[in-house]
What we know:
- The complex is a heterodimer of chains A (514) and B (424).
- Chain A has 514 residues and is α/β, with parallel strands linked by helices.
- In chain A, 33% of the residues lie in helices and 17% in strands.
- In chain A, the strands form three sheets. In chain A, strands 1, 2, 3, 4, 5, 15, 16 and 17 form an eight-stranded mixed sheet that branches. In chain A, strands 10-11-12-13-14 form a five-stranded parallel sheet.
- In chain B, a hairpin with a 2-residue loop joins strand 3 (44-53) and strand 4.
- In chain B, helix 4 crosses helix 5 (241-249).
- Chain B is globular and about 95 Å long.
Amino acid sequence: MRTMNQRFTKAALGAVAILSAALPASAFFGDDESEQDPDVYLAIVGGDIYTGTGEILRGATMLSKNGKIDEIGYDLYLPEGTEEVDAHGLRVYPGLVALKATSRLTQGTFAPGLKLHEFVPEVDHPDICGDCGKSFEEIVPSAVDPGEYSTEHLATDGFKSDFDESFDPFSGYMVMALGNGITTVQQSSTAVKLKRGEVDGVSLSEKTMTSMSWSGSNPSGKADLREKFRDAARYQDELRRWEEVVKKDKEAKEPSKKGIDSRVLAILQGATLAKFSSNDRDDLLGIARLAQKYHFRPVIEGCVEGWCVADELGRASAYAIINPRVRRDRQENLTHDNGSSIENAAILTRAGVQVAITPGNTSIDMGGISGRDLLSLPLEAGFAIRGGLDERTALEGITVIPARLLGIDHRVGSLEIGKDCDALITDGDLLHYQTFVQYTVVEGKLVYDKQEEIFYKNIRPRPEPDVAATDPGEAPAEGASEEAAASEETPEVEAPSEDAVEEVVEVEDETVED
Amino acid sequence: MKMRKLLFGLAGALALAAPSIAATSTPELFALKVGRAETATGESIEHAVILIENGKIVTIGQDLEIERGIPVIDRSDLVVTPGFVNCYSRAGLSSSGASGTQPSVQASTELYPRQELFGDLLKAGVTTLGLYPPGNGIPGQAVAISTAGTTLEDMILKEGAYLKILMASNSSSRKMLDGAFEKVEKYNETVEKAREKWEKSVEDWDKEHKQRKKDEKDGKELKPEDPKPGDFVAPEPDAVAGPFIKVLDGELPVLFSIRKAGDYLHLLKGIGEREFNWSLRVPLRNDIDLFKVADQIGEKELRVVMEPRLTLMEWTMRERNIPDELTRAGAHVAFIPNGDDLDNMKKWRLHVGHLVKRGMDADAALAAMTLEPARELGLDDRLGSLEVGKDANLLFFDGDPFQPSTKLVSVMSGGNFVGDEELR
């Protein structure tokens, strides 16, 4: 069985190496397999798979094994008991990654932020709300009597370490997010997988970004930060030199860490990313130069005037978290470029900045700002396209780039063998305003079906699958390649080679013999 | 007029002196004939004859022959059910509560007998109450009382009926639970160490004793001998470890209070591999999502303490009958009134009747007011159903107890009628 799978992989389009890495070590030894839980398979069959890495596989099939992508390709052998999701005539995309998402998603309507007073009747805090813009940490320590609701952990590791224990796997808001394609969210500084009906393994990473302040209105703060970086860099140099010296001279004294900012040091050592919230051209320039000088990659949230200094930011290998629809008036008295530009994302990308995209409001709200909140994340990416960004990068801006910022791009953000099988199945281009998510799969489990949930079931009911147009195993349909040609950047369509098909057939014969 | 006032005054004074209801005593042994007996075990007996001796049911059956000489109380027009048991209440207790981990606290310490309320509850058919300690975290242990008693001794049926633990979805709840069980582990280690020390001291003493005898033979000078170490006495467990040792020994069941479906999964994770008796308390609020784990709760055949309420699905006006769904899934529902006030206790059976109207099995609904709460209190060996050997706590209805027009005609507690009951 194992050898078969490996040969299979060669036949498929992914990299064998990644697959091997993803396989449990015990599988290679083939012992006691009967005692383990049976493997769980799910196949998304016959859809146009947009892998998020540039490739589009028309009418292909993706097989998930125990929550990980096992194979992507054509004419796949589906093991017995595989759950099939029919995606003929539909498109398959990687699950979206939403930065700074509202706590409602993972805490449900019973979010601690919303209903804290139920646990602590004495707390009657007017500011306790899910989306008042304040974080849980800002409200809770002051509002809660430590005896009632232990805040010990808040001091040591913040609210995020609570996510494994506080995750609400039945939150209605989470289902809404899944219905809009979001499968991973940032909560405070934790990345959380939106697993439905499960509480195991929901938090993926913690503290990948460290907030720093750099503002033109606070010159002494800038000077302080510069000093901290200088000291930390000097300490690092001394440490490196000492490491060399100590090999010969064991008596050599280790450089002192005293006075070194541990957060800054962590940034220089690459343990965490420095995140700045800046929009002004001058601030951005300052950050870019600081980053270039001390060799770290800054994450810049906002970055409204980033397009004016894109080259500098590109040279600093910066990440930007931008909202393409944000507006800022140009100040006519300034001679240099300033103000917002719809081309911001496109210009930054061309300069080498990795652009993550967020909506104007990262909550989920039924009223008010509809169309600007988390439920229209793909629409925001669409606005970046309107400003000249290519579609592939726009998709990356809501998938793999935010995943990279959260340090989880090895698991989510694109459809590649060995990664988590988090996929959306849509009835059209994800970045088109009319498109609906039809199904959402998280870690190989179907967690959302548009026709089964109350939210969008009666709005444009699902189109009948057009089986004739995309017969699995056939070469990509004519219409499909035309469509690909029409898009701005035509991604390579890798059709399975003759050899590959032959090999698959061979493997199937083997199975019959088994 | 004056006379009347005087009478009222007298009545008031009487009420103060003896607030609970005067009982009409019955013979030591008597037979009760009723139109139908709903036993709460899923069986209903038409033309039932119940033989009661010293307040206990000795025989129950259909159309049994009654030996000559045994007094007969004939209520052939009425339906009889077991007395109602409310296993989760704060009736008659002050409402303030502390919080934190205090599993040794007993709700019985708050109990104040001879309150008019208990008599009223008895008249309303609630013959047994489970009173829980107030507060968050692990507030303490519940007490089971009889509403008919007038002294603490009479009232208290069982202390430590269950340990209440409030579990929310957060790390502090998890730490609280893990911490309590860790204390048991630590205590066990201490006991083990103390035992080793004791064993060593016994060994030493034995050695010394032998040496002494030898010395005695040799005629050496002897020092006075130390007394022989006594039996091993384990150190006392502390206020947290003590109750949790009982929990793990199966002596003290746990009632986990949760608020939503997600809490249940976190609770399962928190309990982990530990094995002990536990059940659930879930306040049914309007948009509760508990039905999402109904199958999982049913699979474990857990008991769930909840109000008889229909709920609405999140963001909709769609009704759910969660108690019914849980029952069908295999769980055991124990109902409690919608509130601790007299009015809600009186309307309790009508609220349950409403769920029966919306599909719940009537037998399961009756058991949810009698036998299941009795089980929750660990009293199912002596009350909660009409079975041989159980207390004769009976309610007499003039029809189907869940029918709104049906009246509760009389109440019997421990074989005696409550109030001025005319013996026929």
